[in-house]
Amino acid sequence: MTTYLTRILEFKAGEVRDLKQRSPERLYREKVAELPPVRDFYGALRRAPESPINLIAEVKKASPSRGILVEDFHPLDIARRYAELGASAFSVLTDREFFQGSNDYLQLVASSCDIPVLRKDFIIDESQIFEARLIGADAILLIVAALEPAQLGEYLSLAHELGLAVLVEVHDEHELEHALEQGSRMIGVNNRDLRDFTFSLDTSLRLRPKMPSGIIAVAESGLKRSSDVMMMQEASFDAVLIGEGLLGEELQGFTWKRI
Ligand SMILES: O=P(O)(O)OC[C@@H](O)[C@@H](O)c1c[nH]c2ccccc12
C-alpha cells in the first residue's frame, strides 16, 4: 500500500544513492575521527524526580501535512528564541523534499548554540548517520517503521560508536517491543501516524506505561496546549518534542524549565 511514509522513503532512497556516491565510508571515518566530542543529549533529556518535563524544540519550516508554517524562516533566530523559552534540546529538520529542512540549518544551529541538537530526518542508511555526525548533530532519529528489523540494532550501534544519542521513534506496541529488544535508551512515541498523518495524543498515554523505567521517554507531535504538556508530564514522560505548537502563543507563554 502506498502511504505518505512509503512515498517519503522511496524518495529518500534516491537521495541516499547520491550521498553514497559522493562520500565513501572510508572518508567519513577519517573525518569523524577529527571531530570534537558531541554534547550529552541523553543527559539533557533525562528528567530528575520532581522536576518539570523537558522540551525538545523543533526548528521546522514546513510539513507535508500543513505546508509552510514559517514564511520568513531564520533557523538561528528561532533556535535562540526556543533556548530563551527554556528548551533542553533542539530538533532540526534536515529533510529538504517534504519538510523544507536543510543540513545547513542544522549546522548553523549546532555551531551557534550550546544546547544539544537532534538531526530530524528519515534515516535508512549508515551514510546518513556519519553525515549527521559531520554536520554537527549530537543525536539522530531512527524511525522503527522506516527500517528493516535488523537495521535498527545495527544503526543504534553505529550511532553510539560515533558518540551520537538516538531517539528511537515508535507508534504502536509492536514497534515499542522491537525498540526495547534492540537496546534503545531513548524512545519517542509519535502521536502522528506517518502512514496517513492522522494523530491522537492517546498513543503516547497508551504506550508510556509499557516503557520500563530507565528508558528516556519522549512524547512527540501534535502537542499544542499547556494542558497537553501537563498531561505528558503527569504521564511521566521525560520530555516532549514540539514543532508547530511552539509557533502558537499558548506554549510560548508556558513556563518551561529555565536552564
Ligand atoms: O510539529 P509537531 O506536531 O509538534 O511535531 C513535531 C515532531 O514530532 C514531528 O515533526 C515529527 C515526529 N516524527 C517525525 C519524523 C519525521 C519528520 C517529522 C517528525
TrEMBL record:
GO terms for molecular function: indole-3-glycerol-phosphate synthase activity; phosphoribosylanthranilate isomerase activity. It holds the Pfam family IGPS. One of its GO terms (biological process) is L-tryptophan biosynthetic process. Keywords: Amino-acid biosynthesis, Aromatic amino acid biosynthesis, Decarboxylase, Lyase, Tryptophan biosynthesis. The keyword Transport does not apply. It is an enzyme of class 4 (lyase). CDD domains: IGPS. Pathway: Amino-acid biosynthesis; L-tryptophan biosynthesis; L-tryptophan from chorismate: step 4/5. Residues 5-249 form the Indole-3-glycerol phosphate synthase domain. SUPFAM superfamilies: Ribulose-phoshate binding barrel (SSF51366). It catalyses: 1-(2-carboxyphenylamino)-1-deoxy-D-ribulose 5-phosphate + H(+) = (1S,2R)-1-C-(indol-3-yl)glycerol 3-phosphate + CO2 + H2O. Belongs to the TrpC family. HAMAP family: IGPS_B (MF_00134_B). This is Indole-3-glycerol phosphate synthase. It comes from Prosthecochloris aestuarii (strain DSM 271 / SK 413). The gene is trpC.
